[in-house]
Write a structure and sequence with these properties.
It is a single chain. The chain is globular, with a radius of gyration of 18 Å. The longest helix has 22 residues. Helix 5 packs across helix 6, helix 6 packs across helix 7 and helix 6 runs antiparallel to helix 8. With 218 residues, the chain is α+β, with helices and mostly antiparallel strands. The strands form two sheets. It has a three-stranded mixed sheet, covered by helices on one side.
Length: 218
Amino acid sequence: NYRPFDRSRMVKLAHRIAADDIHPDSKLTLEARQLFHEEESNMLGYKSRNIEHKDDPEKRRVVAWGMYQFTRIAFEEVGILGSNGEWNANNKYGVSSFDDFLANPLAQEQAMEDLMIHHDDQFGNKGTYEFAEKTIDVKIDGKIVSITVTQDGLLAASHIEGAGETNKIVRSLFDDEGVFIGGVLDISVRPDDRDAEKIYNVLKRLLDFQDVPIFREG
């Protein structure tokens, strides 16, 4: 199977940082958290921010925060923000601002853990895991690559496009009998069109995380 990362390097890196793990009791594996970090945030790690329109002061805004690039929707899903966009003063993580969140690595780790548990529950309710072990063919740099859909890949995709949208996209690629009908989609380059980008993001995460366990055993 195609692998975008050197897995042996990833495992070694995970072991190297294990002693410094801010949340050793996390239900998420260290390897998954490290890979999320590599794909989501920059060298600033827990202090990372994703800024749109950096060169335009009038449009400039932060759209994601921290090691795992939490968006406002993710903040709402774990109860840090209310549906009205206001900070929940009683949130379990003890943070009261975006800067506070960036300065609290443990809160970020706990929030990521809770978000994955929440999405796992959503997939269970939606029946999304019925697609696990099915295959999707994609093209990368002219080469046909077969992706095995896994629960881990679905969870990874949900962090970038949400559980609902991930469920919708995966279902659109199969008929009622579970036969793949999506055609061979080229994911060599991220598309500019937002609808196409959603599909790209889901497929890329299904590929990158297909053999990376999200939850620790037991």
